[in-house]
């Protein structure tokens, strides 16, 4: 079929206007602009106007592009190639493997494209259907081993209706381009199938059956698992000022959360931080498997130094891959860093299109786009009864830490957990610097609800008393109030704070979280008989240090039980009445 053609009539940074010469053009269609040196720059149609005029957002640098350059329309939407070989890869927002691009040219040149999945790798295919079986879109044809998982080979999801298997490959080794099956539809048309197929990135994959997220996703971060949890299939917003620890928190979540697959979407993050991810992650050992962390990780890299239009593509690319692995029956976690820069890219494009601006010049439809992105998360019950989930955690970088700006507010309305980072806590070197009072979550905790309420009430009381101390000094409050304040400070120091660089304290398993909570609650609830601010402060300082030393010990480590006994003896010696938990 003959594809439409056109020519460039105006260039405004990444926004290009073109006049079509032949054929019809659809919104969302991929096009290539051929510049003077013969390079083909990939673009996407984002608006179709009267008079055969179209707007395109170009995913490459538009320097030296000029009026009259030819435009070739493909008739196809922007899509991701799905199949074995995605895990362990690092790609740009258009699914070009960055390491392969680096082999071609150290500084990434415009117009370069590389096969997203290696066509030379052979995968050991095991069929799951036979000739004569009836299949439809999403049916499993067979499996191949991919890293840690059995990767299901699907009938493309776009196929509708029943099809009959005419041929299925025998057990053996095949590339992703080798035909492994032939199916026939009701009209008698035969369709050859390979291990890979494409899916439009901006079209959500249909759920077989959607379920409500209700099972807590352990993250290894105590303040999250205890107070502000995220569920399998849930969503979370992580806003905070620059330098408050968003990236460190995301790295910890990627390494220690109990998700099967982690997808990192560096959608406009600063290049230096993204490079750190590219360098560190291939060298990290997964504590759960003892193998490389990259075996269950996929990274989409589109930094702030890359074209703005590709930021949007990288967000949708990561989400589509996440949906695909959810249909594999796996628990997938997407870490999008930072969605603010994705929104800023949308603002730039909207301004160049001369659309009516919304608050702070963001497009009027920014809330709709953000909501649609997070709505792609969720728990899916698959046809065989198994469950897969897609959880999304998006960081937001509001200028000046202003949580009232449009992107943060739109994200808050679309997510189930709010982890607001505090400048005061980060300046005090507290990690995680998640605000203990203003953060919240609607998902179930690893603790009981009354225990969560107990912790939050103590923290609120501690903050109120701390404000009174600032106003009136320690002499202006009673010993009883000062003890309550010290208990809140103890809870914060030994339970909510962690040392992200320590191999033991940096991650806390659910069983140890429970044990730690019982310990700290026993200490807090026990009556205290000492008097005087100096004595009270000294007492809690001793308890705090002993508890922190205990936090750094593994349960199977020699001295763990001894340190626990020392801690409890300190409690008894200095006025508490406590029993060993």
Give your account of this protein's structure:
There is one protein chain. The protein is of the alpha+beta class and 581 residues long. It folds into four domains: 5-77, Thrombin, subunit H (Beta Barrel), CATH 2.40.10; 82-108 and 207-414, Rossmann fold (3-Layer(aba) Sandwich); 123-195, OB fold (Dihydrolipoamide Acetyltransferase, E2P); 449-573, Bovine Mitochondrial F1-ATPase, ATP Synthase Beta Chain, Chain D, domain3 (Orthogonal Bundle). It has helices at 98-104, 222-226, 246-256, 271-280, 309-326, 339-352, 366-374, 406-414, 423-427, 449-472, 479-496, 510-525, 533-551, 560-573, and strands at 5-12, 15-22, 29-34, 40-49, 53-58, 70-77, 79-82, 90-91, 123-127, 134-135, 140-146, 149-154, 163-168, 172-174, 181-184, 190-193, 197-200, 210-211, 235-239, 261-267, 297-302, 331-336, 378-381, 387-396, 417-418, 440-441. The strands form five sheets. Strands 8, 18, 19, 20, 21, 22, 23, 24, 25 and 26 form a ten-stranded mixed beta sheet that branches. A six-stranded antiparallel β-barrel has the order 1-2-5-4-3-6. The chain is globular, with a radius of gyration of 27 Å. The termini are far apart.
